[in-house]
Structures
1.
Amino acid sequence: MEENIKGRISVLSSHIMASEKAAALTAVPSDSPTIFDKIINKEIPCNVVYEDDKVLAFKDISPQAPTHILIIPKVKDGLTGLSKAEERHCDILGRLLYTAKLIAKQEGLEDGFRIVINDGPNGCQSVYHLHIHLLGGRQMNWPPG
Ligand code: 5GP
């Protein structure tokens, strides 16, 4: 019975991983508005954990860890992904990382956490509005998949 449940969990998790990857591989890199614009404009709901004039952070809809938060710039300014960064983006990039540290503290991740920025199809990026994943609340593994 226990083996049965373990097997089921393994099948379910591989399905979830496959759909994340499928979403990334079907996403078309572009500077068009994304679902995150709707979140910024409060057109669709999300669970906000932090907000200031430049940055918004909210819980990922498909959490990969007990704590999984997305941290995004409110103004994309061409930053569809990190690979599009230019010198003018240094301030916002630094601010996003510093905000990740503030949120990690706010969320009680004293034992550590992981920051992820997926970029492009090979990096498994599915939403083309730069975002930092803040993951925590469990032991991470290395190397990542
Ligand atoms: P990426 O794969 O581009 O690095 O990450 C995009 C993330 O956005 C995924 O982890 C996905 O679960 C999350 N996501 C996609 N749509 C929504 C949504 O409508 N609401 C929230 N909260 N997260 C979303």
2.
Amino acid sequence: MAYDENNIFARILRGELPCKKLYEDEFALAFPDIMPQAPIHVLVIPKGKYISIEDFGASATPAEIAGLFRAVSTVAKQVGVAETGFRLISNSGPDSRQSVPHCHVHILGGHQMGISLAPA
Ligand code: 5GP
């Protein structure tokens, strides 16, 4: 599957669509999810053109990989969940219901979560 240059996060990265920027560096951008599933729900996306976390892990450079995960820790601290805890989720591919085909991780926190990963 080829990278879709017009996916929503590609358009956010190009500045064609707005987002409430929480953090940005040369490797990553972080902004709140438009439909939050927890009191804190932030998306962290790499700037590189990777379709999913699977694609990212397979093809990104070590610097890009470090950059994304450094950004996660920075953002977790910034939004106040570094100490209280958070869940890091990355949907990858059809079974996960990934809906935007640009690699991203969800930081979810702000309350205690259940453990269910039951099938739909
Ligand atoms: P996925 O389902 O691919 O793991 O997650 C995509 C996430 O992107 C969803 O949680 C959805 O709410 C969020 N999302 C989709 N479009 C936009 C948008 O235009 N702006 C923001 N901030 N979030 C979006």
